[in-house]
């Protein structure tokens, strides 16, 4: 049995996105890789922002 937390699921989705982007791009150039990295960093920022609100450090979020 495997337990996947919300954070783990978000990471898996990110890597699936990265895999799809790399396979979609037949010719890997520095520009293509930079754009993919930028997109992944933006996704990570969104994930961190979403999980930050649900953090145990935020008691108000736990009351919802």
Tell me about this structure.
By secondary structure, this protein is mainly alpha-helical. It has one domain. The chain is 75% helix and 0% strand. It is built from 3 helices and no strands. It has helices spanning 6-24, 30-53, 59-63. The protein is elongated, with a radius of gyration of 15 Å. The mean pLDDT is 69.
Would you kindly provide a brief summary of this structure?
With 64 residues, the chain is mainly alpha-helical.
Keywords:
64 residues, 3 helices, mainly alpha, elongated, 0% strand
| Distance between the ends | 30 Å
- What structural class do helix, strand and pairing data support? mainly alpha
| Residue share in β-strands | under 5%
Number of strands: 0
> What's the story with the biggest beta sheet?
none
Total domains? 1
Compressed to H and E, one letter per element, the order equals: HHH
Number of helices: 3
Uncertain spans, ≥5 residues at pLDDT below 50?
none
Q: Measured on Cα atoms, how large is the radius of gyration?
A: 15 Å
Average pLDDT, all residues: 69
Helix content: over 70%
Q: Judging from the principal axes of the Cα atoms, what is the shape?
A: elongated
């Amino acid at each position: 049995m495997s337990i996947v937390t919300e954070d783990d699921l978000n990471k898996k989705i990110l890597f699936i996105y990265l895999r799809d982007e790399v396979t979609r791009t037949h010719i890997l150039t520095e520009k293509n890789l930079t754009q993919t990295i930028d997109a992944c960093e933006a996704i990570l920022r969104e994930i961190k922002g979403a999980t930050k609100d649900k953090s145990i450090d935020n008691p108000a979020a736990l009351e919802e």
